[in-house]
Design a protein that fits this description.
176 residues, four-stranded antiparallel β-sheet, alpha+beta
């Protein structure tokens, strides 16, 4: 077995990709209410900030920032996945189980990247917000409802037409 080492920087900001086990499933958007509830519940128990997020049908990308004295993002993802899964089961969604009797909703692992600096942060925010267009779900970034892009527009950090054409350096504002 591979002994994978994860970055353990207290107070760090991390980019994540988290996938459903079945990459053709659409649970994340068809049950977005339950996903949002899972995030809210875990944030109350184990605080973190969401710098950016986009939820697609079968995966999500997010940048989470942890408290200064905390590096346990794995525990947070485990709790979010668990809350979401239990909510779907309680709602009557028929989920298959593996040989151990565990629900096969999520891929076991996730991908994380420690954000190194402001430029790295901005590149990952752009990637997150543009991802629904990249996957062909919408033509314009603003048309995807499950994205922090709308918060960036509301707070005037990005223009509502950002990402509609090729992304240009001049389109980045982020309040700078």
């Amino acid at each position: 077995m591979v002994n994978y080492r994860r970055s353990q920087t207290p107070g760090g900001s991390y980019f994540f990709t988290v996938n459903l086990h079945n990459r053709r499933a659409q649970y994340l958007v068809t049950h977005i209410y339950h996903l949002r509830q899972a995030f809210r519940m875990v944030r109350k128990q184990r605080p973190f900030k969401i710098a950016a997020i986009a939820v697609m049908p079968d995966h999500l990308h997010a940048i989470l920032t942890l408290p200064e004295d905390d590096h346990d993002y794995s525990g947070r993802w485990r709790a979010i996945k668990s809350h979401f899964t239990r909510s779907l089961v309680k709602a009557g969604v028929d989920l298959s189980k593996n040989d151990k009797g565990e629900y096969k909703l999520w891929q076991r692992r996730f991908w994380e990247h420690l954000i190194r600096d402001e430029d790295d942060l901005h590149r990952h925010i752009d990637y997150i917000h543009f991802n629904p267009v990249k996957h062909g779900y919408v033509v314009r970034v603003r048309d995807w409802p499950h994205s922090s892009f709308h918060r960036y527009v509301k707070t005037e950090l990005l223009d509502e037409n950002w990402g509609h054409a090729a992304i240009k350096e001049s389109e980045h504002s982020y309040g700078e």
